[in-house]
Amino acid sequence: MLTLMQLYGKLLDSYGHQGWWPIIGHEGNNPTKTGSIKGYHPKDYSFPRNDCERFEICIGAILTQNTNWANVEKSLINLCNKDFLSPQKIIDNFDKVRELIKPSGYYNIKAKYLLNFSRFYFELSKRAPARNELLAVKGIGRETADSILLYAYNEPIFVVDAYTKRLVKGLGLLDTEDYETIRAYFEANLPRSFEIFSEFHALIVEHAKHYYSKKPYRLNDFLK
DNA sequence: TTCCAGGCAATAC
DNA sequence: GTATTGCATGGA
Predict the structure, then answer these.
(1) Which residues surround strand C, with CB < 7 Å?
(2) Distance in angstroms, CA of A116 to C1' of B12?
(3) Ordered alpha helix ranges (H), A36-178
(4) DSSP structure class, residue A30
(5) pLDDT tens digits along A139-177
(6) pLDDT per position as a tens digit, A72-127
(7) Contact in structure between A19 and A151 (CB atoms under 8 Å)
(8) Near strand B (CB < 7 A), which residues?
């Protein structure tokens, strides 16, 4: 039976370091990414480097809900060009923000989500949020909360997404779709390391884009 | 043209 | 707790 560390090693050998979470404006370069997608920073775990980047990660985590990252990037660039990547600017310019985030879809509800989160973030005043505090914000569900804790605050929380659920089922690791059960499984069987958790989740997404996207899913027994 | 994308909340049972 | 539905743009 494959251990999770062995699975992690195989994914890392196959796809290399992913450099998540992408930061727009950062001149990153990842050979596994193509086109206009930028902002990845392989082997550099020093992010976020400031409060602006931390907030950008949080906003991106909300905008990418059920949405391709290339579309999210367009919205983030729109916001960045207007210097709107701060909680105060989003609070003060709701209608403009709503227009600027159209490329990433669901723009009416996501604009409200960004407003809700911005108010919450402003009230935090630099303090790190607790998981249950994040979950109390309308628009922040479990995956978004955990993405924020992991990538914006470097806390060792394992992020579970739709791809992770397909992978654990496909490899026969677990027979459940339950978010907390899957998260507990990864967290209990891996070193409690922010670097490993962030890299592992990114690798699962990269792998699943190749094998667990369009049905029927492709065989990936080389991981077993 | 159809399908898919790094979910979430509301609702119904 | 599980199942269903609306939310929307843009690329393959």
Answers:
(1) A 35, 66-68, 70-71, 74, 102-110, 178
(2) 27
(3) 51-63, 69-81, 87-92, 94-100, 107-124, 131-135, 142-147, 162-170
(4) -
(5) 999 999 999 999 999 999 999 999 999 999 999 999 999
(6) 999 999 999 999 999 999 999 999 999 999 999 999 999 999 999 999 999 999 99
(7) no
(8) A 20-22, 60-61, 64-69, 71, 105-106, 109, 137-145, 147, 151, 161-163, 205, 209, 212-215
